[in-house]
Amino acid sequence: MTTNAARPRALIFTGGRLGDWALPLIREDDYLIGADRGALFLTEQGHPPRLAVGDFDSIDERQLAAVREAAGECLAFDAVDKDWTDTELALREAISRGFRDIVIVGGLGTRFDHSLANVHLLRLAHELGGRAMLADEHNEIRFLAGPIDCRLEADSRYPNVSLLPLTPEAAGVTLVGFAYPLREAVLRIGMSLGISNLLAEPEGTIVLGSGELLVIRSRD
Question: What's the pLDDT tens digit per position in 167-196?
């Protein structure tokens, strides 16, 4: 599964775990969005966001002033009145501006509730007509809704490949080019059958007949 390099992307930098590992993800033509503290990270790293969005309750007034000065546009929300997380606000804004390929950078952190909510945003992006991926130093997470088949290229950064259903069942799961192939399998919530596979070829194929899957590439 690859992203067309010629197609503009939106990168959303969140307030989760960020570091130098995140900077090589940025392409020259990417539209950079900073969600709350993610906007400060981009500003401090010399990559001013085109859009800063959030309630900015995790940065101080001096830092917020720096973000406002650096960002092309800043959308500030009240921390009490807003219904969505800063990352969801950023995702919805990206899709409303026409971006269909979106990478959420640093959305997995120490707050499991926020991490899980960000995983669920991959499904929301699909519902809104986009395609989103979560990326951090150790994981890449994508969402698939059947029927679909997709290619997955070998990547030494993330050798492990796991499949976890988001619906009660994900049916018709076939894996080609993997160390542990499957054919027309049914993955159910609570099953560990799809955990820790490996690509055995330079490229593998995942076929999903029905239901929804998370494709999680990871390293220790």
Answer: 999 999 999 999 999 999 999 999 999 999
- The alpha carbon of residue 40 and the mean position of all alpha carbons in its chain are separated, in whole angstroms, by 19
Confidence check: pLDDT of 94 > 60: yes
Query: How many whole angstroms separate alpha carbon 187 and alpha carbon 57?
Result: 40
Residues 56 and 35: their CA atoms lie apart, in Å, by 8
Among candidates 47, 203, 195, 199, which has minimal Cα distance to 213? 195
The label of the residue with tokens 């009490």 reads 80
Q: Span 112-128, mean pLDDT?
A: 95
pLDDT of residue 2: 40
In 90-159, where do the E strands start and end?
Answer: 101-105, 131-135, 139-145, 148-153
Distance CA 154, CA 200 (A): 9
Task: Please give the Cα distance from 70 to 87 (Å, whole number).
Answer: 20
Model pTM score: 0.91
SS3 115: helix
- Partnered with residue 197 across adjacent β-strands are 161
- The two counts, helices (H) then strands (E), for the chain are 4, 14
